[in-house]
Amino acid sequence: MYCVHVVGARPNFMKAAPVVRALGAKGGMRQALVHTGQHYDQNMSDVFFRELEIPEPDFNLAVGSGTHAFQTGQIMMRFESVVQDSRPDWVLVYGDVNSTIAAALVCSKLHIPVAHVEAGLRSFDRRMPEEINRLLTDQIADLLFTPSADGDQNLLREGIPAERIRLVGNVMIDTLVRLLPKAADSLPEKLPRDYALVTLHRPSNVDDPQMLSGLLQVLEEISRRVTVIFPVHPRTRQKISQLGFTPGDGFQLWEPQSYLQFLGLQQRALVVITDSGGIQEETTFLKVPCLTVRDSTERPVTVTIGSNILVGRDLQRLRREVEVLLGGQQKKGSIPPLWDGRAAQRIADVLCAG
Ligand code: UD1
User: What amino acid positions are annotated as catalytic residues?
Assistant: First the structure.
C-alpha cells in the first residue's frame, strides 16, 4: 500500500507525526511525505520535524506565503504533479489549513482516495478561513477520522454517509503523550514560578488594530500582577510592530517556541490565553486553565469536558476571568474519551483493514 501525507503549517506536523509512525510499523507500507511549504521559517517548521522525529519530506512544494487564493492555487498546481502519475492508495490530509483543502481538492478531481484526519470539527463561523477549509475538505474526503463524537454528529447532519466516518480520537494528543516526558528538559533556566502564557494569531484578533491594541493593553495590565510570556507568531509580530507597541517589564515577547519548549511552558503555566485551536486541546489534556479569546470554538469538548473557557472577544470578561484565576479558583476539567495516545494506531488499523 502507498500512502502520501500532506503537511504545510505548524499545527499539521504534530498531527501527522504519530500517523506516519503507526503506518510505518505496518508491513508492506510505502509512505511519502509532502511539505507544501506554507510555513517555512526555521522556528515554524524545521525544528518541529527534528523534535517530532518526522522523516525529511520527500517533496517540498515551497509555496511560501501569499493571499488565500494564491497559496491554495499554488499548492494545488504543484501537488497535482506529485500524485498524478504515482497514484497513491491513500492521501492523508490534516486539520484545517489551506494545504489541507488544496491537496484534498486535487485528489478528488483525480479520483485518488483522501482521508481527512481531524474531520468534523465546526466553529459554525464561516468568516474563519479554517471553517471553509473544514467544511469543503469533509465534503470531498472519502474517509473521515474524527477526534470526538461531536465531529461525527456534525458530519452526519451535513449528509456524510456513516460508513465514511470513524471516531478514532485525537492524534495531537498522541504526540503530546509521547513527548511530554521530554518537555520539562526544554524549559528555559530562568522561568518565573507563576506566569500567564499567551498566543494570538487569528485574523479576527490581530488584523483589527483596535482589537489588537485592546488585547495588548489587557495583557500589559495582567503583567503587572503576574509575568506574561507571549511567543509571537510572525503575522502577529508584523501587526504589533505596526502599532508601535513597546511592552513593560513583566510582559515578555518571545520568538515562536519549538514543540517541546511550548509544551513545557503550557504544563507549568498558571493560565494560558490563546486563540489557537490545538492549544485548547493540549491545555485540556494537561488540565491547565485556558481562556480562549474567540467567539466560537470548533472544539466544544474542551469547554464542556475540559479546562477551557470561551471568553469571546470581550476584554472585560478576559480581565475578570484572569482575576478569578489569580484569586485561586479554577475550572476543573477532565480528558475527553479516546484522547489516550492511541488515535494514530486506530487510523493505521482502519487503513490497513482495507
Ligand atoms: C495558518 C493557518 C491557521 C493555523 C496557523 C498556525 C490557514 C488558512 N491558516 O495561519 O489555521 O492556525 O497557520 O500557525 O491555513 N509567516 C512567516 N513565516 C512562516 C509562515 C508564515 O513569516 O514560516 C508569516 C507570513 O508573513 C505570512 C503570515 O505569517 O503571510 C501568515 O502565514 P499563513 O500561512 O498565511 O497563515 P497563518 O496565520 O500562519
Answer: 201
In the chain, what is the straight-line distance between the N-terminal and C-terminal CA atoms, in Å?
10
- Protein residue with its CA nearest to atom 12 in ligand 1: 276
Cα 45 to middle of ligand 1, angstroms: 11
- Which of the 8 DSSP states describes residue 307? S
pLDDT(19) > 80: yes
Q: How far is CA 143 from the centre of its chain?
A: 20
Mean pLDDT score, 119-148: 98
The string over 338-353, giving b where at least 16 C-beta atoms fall within 10 Å of a residue's C-beta and e elsewhere, is bbbbbbbbbbbeebee
pTM of the predicted model as reported, rounded to 2 decimal places: 0.97
Q: Which fold has domain 2-169+339-353?
A: Rossmann fold (3.40.50)
Average pLDDT, the chain: 97
Strand partners, 251: 228
**CA 214–ligand 1 middle distance (angstroms):** 22
Report whether 103 contacts 80 (CB < 8 A): no
* Ligand 1 binding site (Cβ under 6 Å of any ligand atom): 9-11, 38-41, 44, 65, 96-98, 129-130, 201, 233-235
pLDDT band at 292 (very low <50, low <70, confident <90, very high): very high
Q: Whose C-alpha lies nearest to ligand 1, atom 35?
A: 65
**Confidence grade of residue 354 (pLDDT, cut at 50, 70, 90):** confident
* pLDDT on residue 241: 95
What's the pLDDT tens digit per position in 41-87? 999 999 999 999 999 999 999 999 999 999 999 999 999 999 999 99
For 182-326, CATH number out of 3.40.50.300, 3.40.50.2000, 3.30.950.10, 3.40.50.150 equals 3.40.50.2000
Spatial CB neighbours of 259, under 8 Å, sequence gap ≥ 6: 13, 14, 47, 48, 51, 52, 175, 179
For the segment 300-313, the average pLDDT, to the nearest whole number, is: 98
For residue 201, how far is its CA from the centre of ligand 1 (angstroms)? 8
Do 2-169+339-353 and 182-326 share a fold?
yes
Atom of ligand 1 nearest to the CA of 129: 8
Residue boundaries of the structural domains of the chain: 2-169+339-353, 182-326
